[in-house]
Amino acid sequence: MSLLKKLSRARWLSSLIFLIVLFTITGLVNPTFFTYSNILSAFNSSVVFTLLAVGISFVIMTGEIDVSIGATMGLAAAIAGTIAQRGGSVVEMLIYAVLLGLVVGAINGVGVAIIKVPSLIFTLGIMGIVRGFVYVYSDGRTVENFAGAFTNLGSKELFADITVYYSMVIVIVLVAHILLTRTRNGKNFIAVGDNIGGATLIGIPVVWTKISAYMLCGVFAAVAGVAFASKYGQVNIVAGSGYEMSAIAACVLGGVSLSGGLGSALGAAIGAVIMSSISRMLVFIGLSSDYDNTIKGIMLITIVVADALMHTRSVEKARRARLAARASNHNSAEVGSSDEE
Amino acid sequence: MKNSYKENIKKIVTRWEFVLFMVLVAEFVIFGAVNFQKFMRITSIFSSINNYISICIISLFVTFVMITGGIDIQASSIVGLTSIIIGVLWSDAGLNIWVAVLMAIVTAGLCGALSGFLVAYCNVQPMVVTLGGSFLFSGLALLISGFSETPAFKGISGFPGKNEAGEFIAFRALGKFKLFDVIPIQIIIYVLLIALCYWLLHRSKYGRKVFLVGVNRQAAEYSGINAKWIIMSTYILTGIGAAIAGVLLTANVNSAKYNLGSTFTLSIITAVVLGGTLSTGGKGSIIGTALAAIAICILRYGLPLCFGVSTQNLDLPIGIMLVLVVSARELAANQRVSTFFRGLLKRS
């Protein structure tokens, strides 16, 4: 397959084009937007959303959903906050975050893949429980007054104005993308989401794939929590609630299909940048940020409706082509047998 | 005859609604045993249900959507939208309050119709459409609140309906009226809605169609049911249900705000699922949803009162309840697990 053809099939590419179009429109309305630092800060400020969206994209690709990530993120942020209060290191926070993410993810995975509870419902319950732990852990108080070094880390720039966090995120996203598209285990996620029966028949460990998707999702959400704590400098008990919906929306914008089997980590990351930079672009266009949700909603609905209509059309087209081929076969060979349909 | 009597009992006992009813009874027994004096005060029980009446009402209608195999996570944003429409039309456009209410309900129906149309006629996944809808409608509510002179965060207040004697009349009566000074009007409306939904889902032709579409959409279409319209209508119903909740809430707190109800989504889904509705469609009942919603209300009311659980931390017990209940239900339905337990019983 030629490179061009391959690229035209990549769903993340249309998301990237969409992002560029959005940037261009903003720049045309207000030329001051077109500076290196403005555009870069759109990326830099999307760290939390990118991590959440890439994490949940694994789960969505297997055809399931996880609404507990907002709560997981909140708990990880609260834990990171208390570590920061006593001046602990980021490595320590990350270790705790990864452990937390693995545990929550494993519970979600077992519930969905082994006990076979519908994923929305199971993760909804886990969300309530984890959110409750946030309350218990922080005693109902807001965790604040971090050591300065931790909160400064968020704005520290590594090279060319790219923050430490975003450069980490770039590496993580690229690794995830390559793992998903180039390795056997990575391709399992897509295979399970595309056709679970078929995946079982050719010997893919379906249950384990789902559990590992949830564990990855949990780890990403918990690491996002560390970034969240560092970015905002305080963590209250409802920190991160509602973020799961934005992360799911980011995935959809990035071309990850909610019915599973379609999408990529790169797409989810691009979708997250779109989601988090809308309010920034609105400021440059001159609209108040009150338009934020309306525009997000219209965008989301337009994109999914267009996608669904194109999908229906291609299915219809393929069906017509199949029928036409069958009819011509039928005529030329003059076989008396009827169609198997 | 004795045999069929036994079988009838068995039929009732194994029904999910019976389990929920027992949960409800257990809650009353436990909470009552711990703190009878405080817990058993009828007025405070009623007012606790009143706090969650929006969740109770909306979950009734979301049951319809879920039975067709869909999901609706936009209803909670429609609550805020209706509230702010009533406020702006009444206080800033100067319309009669009842006209404002009517227009708000019609708008909510249209919001539902938009999502329903996209789900049914364009074959978009319900979760994504209503997710987009929840962004869109909460955004619209915020924009509409911009038309008002009152700042958005304050909420439009001072609705009509208090006479000289201090009694609530007209619009405010929808929020504050109490029958015999005990039963709040919201409870009465809720009971009426339960009856209406029960008739609609379990006793009417429409309800049979809703179930059939959920069980097998293609078969429903082949048997001459307009499946697309049925699916779309369930979303319209949910929109109207959310609007009713929004009207009651606005009248009760005497304040029209764009973000009323924004946190309801997950509680609504919890109530519907706990009520025994299959998220894949085809199964569910109004009585189940109503019992589950009330059970959640009583839990939220009783835990802080009797066990000193903080009101901010009620997600934890409800999450545990949801996880345990759905896991147990799945495990009980699992062939391997049930034969394993049967084997254990035989051996002992």
How would you summarize what this structure contains?
The complex is a heterodimer of chains A (341) and B (348). Chain A has 341 residues and is an all-alpha fold.
Key descriptive features of the protein:
heterodimer, A: 341 residues, mainly alpha, ABC transporter involved in vitamin B12 uptake, BtuC, 2 domains, 2 strands, 1% strand, disordered C terminus, B: 348 residues, two-stranded antiparallel ribbon, 17 helices
Structure description:
The complex is a heterodimer of chains A (341) and B (348). By secondary structure, chain A is an all-alpha fold. Chain A folds into two domains: 3-287, ABC transporter involved in vitamin B12 uptake, BtuC (Orthogonal Bundle), CATH 1.10.3470; 291-336. Chain A is 75% helix and 1% strand. Chain A has 15 helices and two strands. The radius of gyration of chain A is 22 Å and the shape is globular. The model of chain A is unreliable at 335-341 (pLDDT under 50). Chain B has 348 residues and is an all-alpha fold. Chain B has a two-stranded antiparallel sheet. Chain B has a two-stranded antiparallel ribbon with strand order 2-3. Chain B starts with a helix and ends with a helix. Chain B has 17 helices and four strands. Chain B has a single domain, classed as ABC transporter involved in vitamin B12 uptake, BtuC (Orthogonal Bundle). Helices cover 74% and strands 2% of the residues of chain B. Chain B has helices at 2-13, 16-34, 36-39, 42-51, 53-67, 75-92, 97-122, 126-145, 170-176, 185-203, 205-215, 217-222, 227-253, 265-274, 286-307, 315-333, 335-347, and strands at residues 156-157, 178-179, 183-184, 255-256. At the A-B interface, helix 7, helix 13 and helix 15 of A face helix 8, helix 14 and helix 16 of B.
